[in-house]
Amino acid sequence: TMTGRCTVPRVWQFVSAVLFSGIAVMALAFPDQLYDAVFDGAEVTSKTPIRLYGGALLSISLIMWNALYTAEKVIIRWTLLTEACYFGVQFLVVTATLAETGLMSLGILLLLASRLLFVIISVYYYYQVGRRPKKV
């Protein structure tokens, strides 16, 4: 069974599953609006990459939802590590895109800040779940 200490990572897992699912649905159903929200009016040249991104996020969200129902610390840690890697890669890709295009908006800055925060939270819980409980 899980210890009481693991309830906060559970909340984070739930929030992550909701976030991944929501963005996936937006990318699949409304690619133009999702792109516009992040890149502030930049024209979408093709909807296909955004929809592929949505499909990938939907797949990750399925893993997140299923991880909510396990007590296996190894599986919980793997999902947290997957999240940290995803957000880290997204941060790097968006930063590289900014360097190439020089395109800057409040949406992009908020995206970068949130991705960095999500990496920190995921890595923190990754280590918290992995720690051995203190003997009382």
Automatic annotation (TrEMBL):
Cellular component, GO, one term: membrane
Locations listed in the record: Membrane
Membrane spanning residue stretches: 12-30, 50-68, 80-99, 105-127
Main location: membrane
Keyword Membrane set for record: yes
Keywords assigned by UniProt, alphabetized: Membrane, Phosphoprotein, Transmembrane, Transmembrane helix
Organism annotation: Daubentonia madagascariensis (Aye-aye)
Entry coiled-coil feature ranges: none
UniProt membrane topology term: Multi-pass membrane protein
Name assigned to this protein: Tumor protein p53-inducible protein 11
